[in-house]
Structures are given as C-alpha cells and as structure tokens.
Amino acid sequence: MSHHDHTEHKHHITPLWVYLAVAATLLIMTGVTIAAAHVDFNKLTGFSEMNFVIAMVIATFKATLVALIFMHLIYDNKFYLLALISGVGCLIIFIVLTMSDTHFRGQVNPIEARPIIEQTTSDKFVGKPAGHEASPEHSTTH
Known about the structure:
2 domains
C-alpha cells in the first residue's frame, strides 16, 4: 500500500476561454455596478437600504466568480468551498443584524433615530487637540 492511495490529488487545467469569459463578466458587472450607483433604488422601491442591498448582491456575485474560477475552489477539495460559504454566511448574518438594528433603532429609543451629528455638538468633545483650528494663512478666501 503506497502513500498515494489516500492522498490522490486530481489536477485540473482550466481552458483559457473560461478565464477570458470570467474576466469579461467581471468587467461587465463593474459597468453594472457603476450604472446601479447612479440609480436611486431607495426611492423606486420604498426600501431605504435597497441601494446597499443591490451593491452587495453585485459584489457577492463578482467575488464568487473570482473565488470559484481564479482561486480554483470549484475544482478543489469541497471542504475549502464549505469554509468559504460558512464565512460568507456569517458575514451576511452580521450585516443583516446590523442593518436591522440601524433601521429599527429609533422605534426603541427616539433620540437614537437622529444622526449622531445632531445629538452632540462639537464643543462637547473631550480632548480636542490644540492647533487644529483653521488659521488665516490656510484659508481659501483672501
């Protein structure tokens, strides 16, 4: 019984056209990302975080292509793919929890619904470093 019986590793050579097709898809999806950034989906759907959701879906699709094809996870041991999916799943859970917290925060405590800049004035900050005020020689109006 040789040591190759338990550790057989299959090599897979990906054709060049697959890499070119994935690269073209990534370029097209970058264009879709730029186009989506110019549309206010929040007003179209009434959902205040829709632009963020669309941006994350596009980014996740692009990252999945890179991981599966360029990092060869599609051909590698499926445990590595499971590890990647588990990590991304945990990230999605954390993002959903954070977004739901910021969305419903004002219903629990109305003062928390306002932006932080409205809650505290700048003169209340402790330890404001000296010398950071705008000096006349650095002013843009003369």
